[in-house]
Automatic annotation (TrEMBL):
Protein name (record): Formyl-CoA transferase
Entry keyword annotation includes rRNA-binding: no
MF terms in GO: CoA-transferase activity
Pfam families listed in its UniProt record: CoA_transf_3 (PF02515)
Matching PANTHER family: SUCCINATE--HYDROXYMETHYLGLUTARATE COA-TRANSFERASE
Record's keyword terms, sorted: Transferase
InterPro entries assigned: CoA-transferase_III_domain, CoA-Trfase_fam_III, CoA-Trfase_III_dom3_sf, CoA-Trfase_III_dom_1_sf
Organism, as annotated: Caballeronia choica
Length: 414
């Protein structure tokens, strides 16, 4: 029987991060039951203003900030910093993705918060890490893809370096940050001590490039672009059909023999150019001609049916919408229909790992800006409504709007 709680139930996270890498980390934690308190500046997380939009709300913000609560705190004020520090005293985890040194200046660095809460797990996600010659540099996904060799390894051999079609540096950094937080929490169970988890997007992106790095350190040569094919196996890549493209993955001689019989070209077995994987890879262009002579008069659906029947690894090339709406994605529950406070139904993602001993992931909508300010301060810090009003008047939640004077009111009503 599934446990009614989720694996991270009872873990409290204070999230100072914004945009993508940090919020993705805390979204993954929230999916599994962690309580995530998102602290936003008076203007809100920048992602709130980035499209696409649905009813004036950012779809990117909605996806990366599911299952969270929002409180607005102005960290540029003394009273705001004191308030944030109080919330962190009762936290298990703090996540931030400021440039190195900024959190310290704002009074929420690891040195300060860790002194007050020695069991705190504190995760910093930054472009180049907390140390090193590039630590001071700002970073965006395109910068990391360029600097880590990912763009250089992506694209066709005769084409330019190409961006991967996802913000992979941000996403993998958030993923590694969540992994680091969980490892630190597990260690804390044994030692009682927290730690500072330093996640560099540069490090994370190079670590993501696991096969590229392995080939480079083995050969001493940077891998070159190979386009839509495997660098050391064939046929292993994308091929043209009458109405689109499909991919096949043939990794050994036995499978190649099955493949050539399936496409009606058994004579290829006697061709020295295709005698083993190394030869097939070296002569991939000639092999491609033979394969597409068979596939170019067949639809992608027909090609897939024939090769699937022969137990050849094959797939159509889908777009993201087709993938999300596929029978398998629907069965696995990769999107969850979630009610919005205005009556709309949102479809939101969740982390993909299944746990046999626990209920399904939590999936609730992202919060409105500052939506939970009063509730968090009342429940977590025991503040009265009067004290919260005092903090508001002191600017803890942002600049206080001045009441119009009588002259302005008369002019307004004139």
């Amino acid at each position: 029987m599934a446990h009614p709680d989720l694996p991270l139930a009872g873990i409290r996270v204070v999230d100072f991060s914004r945009v993508l890498a940090g919020p993705y980390c805390t979204a993954l934690l929230a999916d599994l039951g962690a309580e995530v308190i998102k602290i936003e500046p008076p203007g809100g997380d920048d992602y709130r203003a980035v499209g696409p939009f649905d009813n004036d709300e950012s779809g990117l913000f909605a996806a990366m900030n599911r299952n969270k609560q929002s409180i607005v705190i102005d960290l540029k004020t003394d009273v705001g910093r004191s308030l944030a520090q109080s919330l962190c005293k009762g936290a298990d985890v703090v996540v931030e993705n400021f440039r190195p040194g900024v959190a310290d200046k704002l009074g929420i660095g690891y040195a300060q918060l860790g002194d007050a809460n020695p069991a705190l797990v504190y995760a910093s996600v930054s472009g180049f890490g907390q140390t090193g010659p590039n630590a001071h540099r700002p970073a965006y996904d395109i910068i990391l893809q360029a600097m880590c060799g990912l763009m250089d390894a992506t694209g066709t051999p005769d084409g330019p370096p190409t961006l991967v079609g996802e913000s992979v540096s941000d996403v993998v950094s958030g993923l590694f940050a969540s992994w680091g937080v969980l490892a630190a929490l597990l260690s804390r169970e044994k030692t009682g001590r927290g730690t500072h988890v330093d996640v560099s997007m540069f490090d994370a992106t190079l670590s993501l490039s696991a096969t590229l790095v392995a080939r480079c350190v083995t050969t001493g040569i940077a891998p070159v672009r190979t386009g839509n094919r495997h660098p050391s196996s064939a046929p292993f890549g994308a091929y043209r059909a009458a109405d689109g493209f499909f991919v096949v993955a043939v990794l050994n001689n036995r499978l190649f023999e099955t493949f050539v019989h399936a496409i009606g070209q058994p004579h290829l077995l006697a061709d020295a150019r295709f005698s083993d994987d190394h030869s097939r890879c070296r002569n991939e262009a000639d092999l491609r001609v033979a394969i597409e002579a068979w596939s170019r008069d067949r639809s992608v659906e027909e090609v897939n049916a024939i090769l699937e029947d022969a137990r050849i690894p094959v797939a159509p090339i889908r777009n993201v919408q087709q993938a999300l709406e596929s029978d398998h994605a629907v069965f696995r529950g990769l999107l969850t229909a979630t009610p919005h406070s205005d009556g709309r139904t949102l479809r939101l993602p969740s982390q993909p790992v299944k746990f046999s001993g626990y209920a399904a992931n939590r999936v609730t909508r992202a919060p409105g800006l500052g939506e939970h300010t009063e509730a968090i301060l009342g429940q977590r810090l025991g503040m009265s409504v009067e004290r919260i009003d005092e903090l508001r008047a002191l600017g803890a939640f942002g600049p206080v709007a001045e009441a119009p004077n009588e002259t302005e009111m008369e002019s307004h009503h004139a």
